[in-house]
Amino acid sequence: MTVYGPDIYTEPDGDPDTLANLGPMRPMAGVWEGTKGSDHHPVVEGTEQNTFVEHYELHPIDRQTNGPQLFYGLRYHTHITKPGEVETFSPLLYPTRPKQSKRPRMVTGTANISYLGTGADPGTRA
Predict the structure, then answer these.
(1) Helix (H) / strand (E) containing 49
(2) By three-state DSSP, how is residue 23 classified?
(3) Cβ–Cβ < 8 Å for 15, 63
(4) Please, which residues bridge with residue 115 across strands?
(5) I need a surface site. Which of 66, 74, 82, 105 has the fewest CB within 10 A?
(6) CA 125, CA 107: separation in Å to the nearest integer?
(7) How far is 3 from 104, CA to CA, in rounded Å?
């Protein structure tokens, strides 16, 4: 546990180079695409199999402070489609009532992944 002292209001300056301070998350930064996704799920006739393409983007964000805490992070975005299509593929969004719309309720996922660290090299234990 980090002890911050009596002044919990002063924010640290930090380093503007987020990428250099991501610690073990540093290798994740970039644009990634997987083309070998596979989904097997139940249907009325038995089992159906779908293939899909996953596209991930993880971009460094500006450093963030919370009182004396200093955070570095990545903005995360994912888009999953069937090969050759542009519409989002989501096998988990089934209608729950008869005649309910089958449109996906979520088209993309976006979040921030944060790391509270010292800027140590990936794999280094503090």
Answers:
(1) strand 46-60
(2) helix
(3) yes
(4) 72
(5) 105
(6) 38
(7) 46
